[in-house]
Design a protein that fits this description.
Distance between the termini: 26 Å
Radius of gyration: 18 Å
CATH superfamily: P-loop containing nucleotide triphosphate hydrolases
C-alpha cells in the first residue's frame, strides 16, 4: 500500500483537483484507492459523493480503532475502486498549530488498521491519497508522518516558488525528525496556460529552484476540470476534448507517482536571495 500526501502551503492552487485526478486515473487502471480527506473544507468528499457514514475522519483521529475506521470509510459515488475516508468540518477543531506530539501518530495508526482490513477479506488498497489542508498544523503534520511520499502542488504564479519551497522544507523536516521513509515525489504544476509567457517564466523559475523534482507533466488549465467536479464525475469519464487532455496528463502523473513512491529522490539545490545551498549539504547521497 503506497501512501502519498498531496499538499501545498498556499491555498487555491488545486491540490484537491490533483488528488481527485489521481484517484480518477487510478480507477481507470484498476488500482484500488482510498482518498483520505484531511481538509476541513471537505471538497474531495463532496466530489466523491459517498453515502452517509456513521463516523468521519474527525472521529478516527480521536479514536483510531478498527470499528470507528470502518464506520468512516465509504464507497465513493464514482463506483468501485475508489473509497473515501470522509472528511468533516470538525477537522478544523483538530488542526491546532502546536499539536501534542502524541496525537500526531493517530493517522498513522489508523492507516495501519486500513492494512489490516485486507486481512479480514477486504480487497487491499494499493494507493492511499492524503488530501492535506493548506496549512502546517496537526492535520498536515500527521499526514507527513504517515506517508511514504509527498507530492507538492503549485501554480505558475508569483508566489508559487515560495509556497512550494515552504512545503518542501516541511517535508524535509518531517523526514528528518519523524519519518525517514518519507521522500518528496515531485512538484506538480497545475492550471498551466502554455501560451502564457508569465506561466512559462514561473515554470522555469521553479525548475531553477527544484531541478528534477519539478514533474515533467504539467496540468493544463481547462474548464472541464471544474465541470466534472461540479457533476461529481471522474475527469476520465467527462468526455470532452479538454477533459481528455487533462486525463492524459493525470495518467502520466500517476504512473510517475507510483513508480517513485517509496523511493528516495535527489534533493534539489535550494536557492535563496543571498545564497545557494547545495544538495550535498542537505542530504547524504545514496551509496
Amino acid at each position: 500500500m503506497q501512501t502519498v500526501a498531496v499538499l501545498s502551503l498556499k491555498g487555491g492552487v488545486g491540490k484537491t483537483t490533483i488528488v481527485l485526478g489521481l484517484a480518477s486515473a487510478a480507477q481507470r487502471r484498476g488500482t484500488r484507492t482510498l482518498v483520505v480527506d484531511l481538509d476541513p473544507q471537505c471538497n474531495a468528499t463532496a466530489t466523491l459523493d459517498p453515502e452517509d457514514t456513521k463516523a468521519t475522519l474527525a472521529e478516527v483521529l480521536e479514536t483510531p480503532r478498527p470499528s470507528v475506521l470502518r464506520d468512516a470509510i465509504a464507497r465513493s459515488g464514482w463506483g468501485e475502486e475508489v473509497d473515501v475516508l470522509v472528511g468533516s468540518e470538525d477537522l478544523e477543531l483538530l488542526n491546532d498549530q502546536d499539536p501534542d506530539p502524541r496525537r500526531l501518530d493517530k493517522l498513522n495508526r489508523a492507516l495501519t488498521e486500513v492494512k489490516h482490513l485486507a486481512e479480514d477479506g477486504e480487497q487491499p488498497y494499493k494507493l492511499v491519497l492524503l488530501d492535506c489542508p493548506p496549512s502546517l498544523g496537526r492535520l498536515t503534520k500527521s499526514a507527513l508522518r504517515a506517508a511514504q511520499g509527498a507530492l507538492l502542488v503549485t501554480e505558475p504564479t508569483l508566489f508559487s516558488v515560495s509556497g512550494a519551497q515552504r512545503a518542501f522544507e516541511a517535508v524535509e523536516q518531517a523526514a528528518e525528525d519523524h519519518n525517514p521513509e518519507l521522500s518528496p515525489l515531485g512538484v506538480v504544476v497545475n492550471r498551466v496556460r502554455p501560451q502564457s509567457y508569465e506561466h512559462q517564466y514561473r515554470i522555469a523559475e521553479l525548475r531553477e529552484h527544484f531541478g528534477s523534482l519539478v514533474m515533467p507533466v504539467a496540468l493544463p488549465d481547462r474548464l472541464a476540470v471544474q465541470q466534472a467536479q461540479g457533476a461529481c464525475v471522474p475527469i476520465h469519464s467527462w468526455g470532452t476534448p479538454g477533459s481528455r487532455e487533462v486525463a492524459l496528463a493525470l495518467n502520466l502523473l500517476l504512473a510517475r507517482v507510483l513508480r517513485t513512491a517509496g523511493r528516495a529522490r535527489p534533493r534539489p539545490v535550494i536557492r535563496t536571495d543571498e545564497t545557494e545551498v547545495d544538495e550535498d549539504e542537505r542530504v547524504v547521497q545514496d551509496g
